[in-house]
Amino acid sequence: MLNRLLEEKQPESFSASWVYFNCPAVYRFIWKNVRTDYGVDWDRVTSALPRKFQKRWHSKRKVYAKPYRNMAEVRKVLRKHKATLYTFVSASDWDDKLKRDLISVALVRLAQNGNVRAKQELMKLLGYTIEGWIELSPRISRWQWYSDQIPEQIDRCIRCYRYTGSFMRYLFRTLELAGRRLQSFFTSSLDECYLNTEKMKIDNVVRDPETQEIRMHSR
Question: Cα(97)–Cα(55) distance, rounded to whole angstroms?
Fold first, then answer.
């Protein structure tokens, strides 16, 4: 019903209040049946819509959340999804990726509400996933030389994410775009020696103290 209404009216953007005023029956159903422990699960609603409408969703603008520590909230999420936490280490199919997204969004929302422990736990879980991306994806691989900058990228994604689709896709795309400015300086193993010498390539790798860029000294 919501999808048909959006197709009919084609709003430039929509929100919970838009649904309430334009289709109160749908709003009442969602309010009663699609919930988390902390309110209506609009992430679940919008994820079921076509992607063109996902991009038009505007959630309530969040005010600055005072930081707090509540591990009980985090444990509640982790216990609920205990059987699928493996997806952060290895997501073998589309179903695993959906499960991983479900967990990550639940922790993102807690972190956005100010729960520092939720952000810490999410960063730890995402670390396993990003390690796999670095190993398997050429678009992310150069981050292996800038791992100290990855937490900053994750933190930015957590703060800025509202709903534009998959959080994991959003994180991957952010790393991909930010990684384009990172210097890629080798095409072969750094354990190799320079031609006709006994000097290994790894011996010339340095980090610039000002720019923090990885580069190689000339021989």
Answer: 20
